Amino acid sequence: MARTYTTSEIAKLLEKVSNWGRWGADDQRGALNFISNDKRAAAARLVRTGEAVSLALPLATRPARDNPNPVTHLMIRSGNVGHPLGSWGCADYFAIEPHGLATTHLDALCHHFYQGKMYNGFDYTEVDFQGAHKCAIDVARDGIISRGVLFDIPRVKKVDWIEPGEAIFPEDLEAAEHENGVEVGEGDVMLVRTGRVRLRRIRGAGAFDGMKMPGLHASCLEWLHQRKIAVLGTDAVSDVLPTAYDPPLRMPIHTGTLVMMGVHLIDNADLEQLAEKCASLQRYEFMFSLLPLVLERGTASPANPVALF
Fold first, then answer.
1. Does domain 7-58+101-308 have CATH number 3.50.30.50?
2. pTM listed for this prediction
C-alpha cells in the first residue's frame, strides 16, 4: 500500500537498512562484496547465444535543458588537407561531468552524504579538492560482473512509460518479478526501467521540467536491503522526484543505497533495447558487465554497461 513518510520516519528507515560495519570498519566496497567469484562464474553461465546489448546513452555533446554541462569533444588532429600531422591519423580530446541527467554513469559511494557521513561512517571531509580519499569510484576497478535482472515497470503496468513524478512501490517490483518469473537476489544488479528514455525522445527534455522524475518510492528501501542487491540502475535517477522530504533526505533512495547500504547506483541508463530483447526472449535475467574508468579519487565514472544473453 502506498504511503507517505515523515522526514523523521525516513531517518529511522535509513538506520534500519544500514550495512555499516557489515564487512568491517575499513570497507569501502559496500554491497559489491555480495558479488563473489562463484556469483561471477554463475553469471557467465547465463550466456547462451552471445548476444550483447549496450545499456548506455550516447555521450551528449550538445547543451539541453537537462544537460547544462555537455560533454566537450574536440578534434586535436584530423585528416584535413594542410594539417602538418593530418596524414598520420587523427586524435581527439574530451571532458565529462559524469553526474547529472544526461550521461550514463556509475555513482561512487562517496557521491552522497548524510549527517556529514558517507558509506560506512567515513567523514565527508574525506572528499576534498583533490577528490575522494574514501569510497572513490576506483574501488570498482576490477569491474562489476554479475547476474543482471530487468524490472520493466511500464510493461507490467501496460503503459508506454511511468510519468515524471510518479512513484514505483515494492508491490510494483514484486508484480514485475511475478510476471517475468524471475527474482532478484544476493549480489545481483537490479535494473529498473521507467521508460524515461522513450518519453524524452518523444516529448523532449521539457517533459522533466521542475526536476520531475519517475523513480522508486522510499518504501522500496527495506525491500532492496532484504534482497541484498549489489548495484541498482535505472533509466532515470533511482529516486522519484520531487519528494516532500526536507534536505538532506530529499533523495531517500540515493541516501539509503549509497550512504547506508553501500549500493552503487547507475543513473541515466538506456534500457529500451534491453527491454525489447528481454520481451522477445521472455527472459529477464542475463550476464551484466560494467567496467568503470580507473579514476583514483573520482566520484563517478561514465559507463557503458552491457547485458549478455
1. yes
2. 0.96
